[in-house]
Write a structure and sequence with these properties.
Mean pLDDT: 83
Shape: globular
Strand content: 5-15%
Low-confidence stretches: 160-175, 318-335, 806-820
Strand order of the largest sheet: 1-2-3-4-6-5
Number of helices: 35
Structural class: alpha+beta
Distance between the termini: 69 Å
Number of strands: 19
Radius of gyration: 31 Å
Largest sheet: 6 strands, antiparallel
Length: 820
């Protein structure tokens, strides 16, 4: 064939050969312009109807693709003897792994290169094309470092308008694909979708990072290959790095030494192991999940999580496509899906020998328990309990279910009634499709009250089965998981959760009593310990006593919860707050936040807690990302918006913070914390009359407490009302309740009394108050930042922000009291 003319090109040399054809380097000969190209031809004797059809199929696919990371199609046609050919871009480059190893690219450099491959596959999927044979041999990297995806020979076209027939999965397909990179559905001969390419990309990334293959398929029979791919879980990349088996066959003997593998990644073995652990482990294993539902929804989601890893964001490795960040930062869009559901508080019917008030906790408690169970399945999108609290207040049981579903942005609503009569409990439930107003499933149960735990199991399983036709063994185990087997302990816990969600000082006192009762009945009840930890964490807001003492108790309860159940994200959220104050261990506290997000990326409290942690370190952009994530997950809960506008305030974006607080007030006019925050923001920028009005309104709604009164005192001080401020200060000194010296420090800052403010901050540190974590970012303290005493105090808190603002006086503008 060398020297033969094919269309406008003359073949120069053979550069590749496969089962059905060969590829030749060619040069253009028509004189229009000089160009080298790659010409692909069917081999003589291989021109069967099937192969010709597949060849034309690949040519049609290339004609539909136009992307810088995909080899371009230049031309195509038929030779004089009737064989189809096509001419495409000639890629002069190296195989992917050789390119990376020869240049000793670091892990981050490899990830950035891999992202370009993801962009190419995303483009193909957008054109309705599934590659089906993504592997290192089909990826070349140019001298300039641009990867090119090749060989769409067995690709599948999903777009019916593009081509009438696509290659169907037949017995010959197994011979065409490369098993080491084939997805479980491919080796089973099941329906192929873009998710199959995500799996193959996962295998490529696994090898690119570790020089190991996920599985050892050498010399295995076909049925054994299928079993391994479909059933065996691969080792996490960080753990496989020290193994000598499953190394890539193409590596030379020198390259196969473990130290050399690390050197090829521009690091040492221990550092490589650390770098792969955590986020990268989760990213790769999610892409390699056995089921399509458990993988990333799209290649873009896969690439986005890699981007989060590269930029230092928390890797979410989300199980479902639940929430999409809007381009508009003010948007509160929570994208619904086929399996989104809200569980409304069960409504109480007239009871017999008990009163509704005594049993009201059951309606919320049972809904709360079902939400936790259903959320754990990972394949359902379940609105958190905070999103449905407003429906608890509908006393006449007459609200519109369809309207509730639309407000909550879900496709399904689970609604129910409870009638408890003595030792019996009667429950009626229905699962409603919001879109077409049809009941998917309904059930009635009449049980002994002692069977309430079984009742919860049955309802959660029936709902899950209605929405997920084929539950896995693991999913059924999750649905059947109980925190306790003791009904009395369970009832006490439900009462605690009910009172906790009322969110008042009085309700908190009732909540801790109930949680302690649950632990007394069942000392192994992990969720009850979480309730205790949350209680002590929140005491600081109501000024009951020095927070450090409470932080220690909260930490003890949180550690006990994790000891009993290491899979509880709520326990890690509590630990993140308490351990920071108890130990000033910023890194460990962040680890707890990340662990909570890893266990449940859809937990709004986890995002909110991490946002506050990031704010305290001055990482405002990252913190606002997670604050807004909490809002997206649970937009109806004002406390999540509360996190966002505090972040804007700390970031010195005062006008935005005020607008956000006012928006919450508009939507939740009885949410006292929004008035409290608005007064805080307004007084800092000098709008004193409005600040005083807002703090007075906070007192009206929330009552006179340390929190509201100290806030009002600061507003009075900022407004120059010295006599009234001093009157309140005397009240604080004489009353029995505890006032943090930090609150005194803020008031003294507004009074311009720097010495008193610094002394109060000294006391704050000595008492290890929880407020000391805000030393680095609170704008009110900006007038003290150039003081050596303040700088020493800030350093003593061990806050990582110290490194980013040193020397401090160079990074603050005293005239505007804002970060430069």
């Amino acid at each position: 064939m060398i020297g033969k003319q094919i269309g406008n090109y003359r073949l120069i040399k053979e550069i590749a050969r496969g089962g059905m054809g060969a590829v030749y380097l060619a040069e253009r000969t028509d004189g229009v312009f000089a160009q080298t190209a790659a010409v692909k031809l069917i081999k003589r004797g291989m021109d069967t109807d099937e192969i010709v059809r597949r060849f034309r199929h690949e040519r049609q696919i290339l004609a539909a693709l136009n992307h810088p990371n995909i080899a371009r199609l230049f031309n195509g046609g038929t030779t004089e003897d009737g064989l189809p050919f096509f001419v495409m871009e000639y890629i002069e480059g190296e195989p992917l792994y050789e390119f990376c190893d020869r240049r000793r690219l670091s892990i981050n450099e490899r990830l950035k290169l891999f992202q370009q491959i993801c962009y190419a596959v995303t483009h193909a999927h957008e054109q309705g094309i599934v590659h089906r044979d993504i592997k290192p041999g089909n990826i070349l990297v140019t001298r300039e470092g641009v990867p090119k995806l090749l060989d769409f020979g067995i690709a599948k076209i999903l777009n019916p308008e593009l081509i009438e027939e696509s290659i169907k999965p037949t017995a010959t397909m197994m011979r065409l694909m490369t098993p080491e990179y084939a997805s479980p559905e491919q080796v089973r001969g099941a329906e192929i979708s873009p998710s199959s390419d995500i799996y193959s990309l996962g295998t490529v990334l696994y090898e690119l990072l570790t020089a190991h293959r996920p599985y050892n398929l050498a010399n295995q029979a076909l049925h054994e290959i299928t079993r391994i791919i479909c059933e065996t879980e691969p080792e996490p990349p960080s753990r496989v790095i020290r193994q000598t088996e499953n190394l890539l066959p193409a590596l030379s003997a020198e390259q196969k030494t473990l130290n050399q593998i690390a050197e090829n990644r521009n690091t040492d073995l221990a550092a490589l192991e650390t770098e792969l652990s955590g986020g990268l482990d989760r990213i790769v294993l999610k892409a390699l999940a056995k089921t399509k539902e458990s993988r990333y929804r799209t290649v873009k989601d896969f690439s986005d999580d890699i981007e989060r890893r590269l930029t230092g964001e928390v890797v979410l490795a989300e199980e479902l496509d639940v929430l999409r960040r809007s381009a508009d930062s003010d948007s509160r869009i929570a994208t619904t899906s086929e399996r989104s559901i809200a569980v409304l508080p069960f409504r109480l019917l007239q009871t017999g020998d008990t009163t509704e008030a005594e049993d009201k906790f059951l309606g919320l408690g049972l809904a709360d328990a079902l939400i936790m169970h259903l959320s754990a399945t990972k394949r359902l999108i379940v609105r958190p309990i905070g999103s449905v609290l407003r429906y608890l207040k509908d006393e006449d049981n007459s609200f519109d279910l369809l309207a509730a579903g639309r407000e909550l942005g879900v496709r399904f609503i689970l609604d129910g009634f409870i009638n408890r009569q003595g030792a019996r409990i009667r429950v009626s439930v229905q699962l409603l499709n919001v879109e077409d107003n049809k009941t998917i499933w309904a059930g009635r149960f009449d049980e002994d009250y002692t069977n309430v735990l079984t009742l919860e199991d049955v309802i959660s399983t029936r709902v899950a089965e209605s929405l997920i036709p084929h539950l896995t063994v693991d999913e059924r185990a999750v649905l059947a998981k109980r925190g306790t087997e003791n009904v009395r302990a369970y009832e006490a816990y439900l009462r605690g959760r009910y009172h906790w969600k009322m969110f008042t000082e009085e309700s908190f006192a009732k909540a801790i009593e109930a949680f302690n009762e649950a632990v007394a009945i069942d000392p192994d009840y992990a969720l009850a310990y979480v309730g205790i930890a949350d209680y002590y964490n929140w005491l600081k807001s109501f000024g009951v006593g020095p927070y450090h003492d409470f932080a220690v108790k909260a930490k003890q309860a949180g550690l006990m919860a994790i000891k009993l159940d290491p899979q509880l994200p709520e326990a890690y959220i509590s630990l993140a707050q308490s351990s920071l104050i108890a130990d000033l261990d910023w890194k460990r506290a962040e680890g707890y936040c990340l662990r909570a997000l890893e266990l449940n990326p859809y937990n709004a409290d986890a995002h909110s807690s991490y946002a506050y942690h990031l704010f305290s370190e001055g990482q405002f952009d990252k913190g606002l990302f997670h604050a807004r994530r909490a809002v997206e997950i649970e937009p109806q809960t004002p406390n999540n918006h509360h996190t966002e506008y505090w972040g804007l305030y700390f970031a010195r974006r005062f006008d935005e913070a005020i607008r956000k607080a006012e928006n919450v007030i508009s939507n939740h006019p009885l949410y006292g914390f929004a008035y409290f925050a608005r007064s805080w923001f307004l007084r800092f920028i000098g709008r004193h009359d409005e600040a005083l009005a807002a703090s007075e309104r906070a007192i009206e709604i929330m009552g006179e407490s340390v929190l509201t009164l100290t806030g009002h005192a600061a507003s009075l001080a900022a407004a120059g009302k010295i006599a009234e401020t001093e009157k309140l200060l005397e009240k604080f000194r004489s009353e029995k309740y505890y006032v943090s010296p930090y609150q005194f420090a803020l008031i003294y800052c507004y009074l311009g009394e720097k010495e008193k403010a610094l002394k109060a901050l000294d006391e704050t540190f000595e008492q290890r108050e929880g407020f000391l974590i805000w030393f680095g970012i609170e704008p009110t303290l900006d007038i003290l930042r150039n003081e050596p005493r303040f700088q020493n105090l800030l350093k003593s808190t061990r806050n990582p922000i110290v490194k980013s603002i040193s020397p401090i006086n160079k990074n603050y503008d005293d005239t505007t009291q804002a970060y430069s």
